[in-house]
Design a protein that fits this description.
DUF3830; Cyclophilin-like superfamily protein; about 15% helix; eight-stranded antiparallel beta barrel; single chain; globular; mainly beta; 2 helices; two-stranded antiparallel ribbon
């Protein structure tokens, strides 16, 4: 089981890659590591932050996809109706865009640090964009 370290603003998390349920998504994301970007408050998805990826083509379809991820169940939306993005739920979430409800590939699950998810949510909501970095746990 492969794990990733995620540093978002001042918070650190460890996430399990869902290799069995989303092998293609995990493999595609592995090619991007280390992955550095900004995380901001989601606009339509409730208690969730997101990482906009614009027109990045990750070459994926849907696998292990959901519209209702739980807190700490991270999704990669491969694009189509909306731009490519990573959704980072910290509470009650219904994944959506201005086009309506979406589904994204659940490929990471927070296994350490989940008690900090609400604090991360408050930070991105009230203080704005935060740096985020995904790296392999050695």
């Amino acid at each position: 089981m492969q794990k990733l370290k995620i540093v978002a603003g001042p918070f650190e998390f460890v996430a399990r890659m869902e290799d069995e349920l989303a092998p293609k998504t995990c493999a595609a994301f592995n090619q991007l590591l280390p992955f550095r970007n900004k995380i901001i408050q989601a606009r339509w998805s409730g208690e969730s932050a997101w990482i906009p990826l614009g027109d990045l083509d990750v070459g994926l379809g849907f696998e292990n996809h959901t519209s209702h991820p739980g807190a700490g169940q991270i999704l990669l939306y491969p694009g189509g109706y909306s731009e490519t993005e990573i959704l980072f739920p910290y509470g009650s979430t219904c994944f959506a865009s201005k086009m309506g409800q979406l589904a994204g590939n659940h490929f990471l699950t927070i296994v350490e640090g989940s008690e900090q998810l609400r604090d991360l949510g408050r930070l991105v909501l009230w203080e704005g964009a935060q740096d985020i970095l995904f790296t392999r746990v050695e």
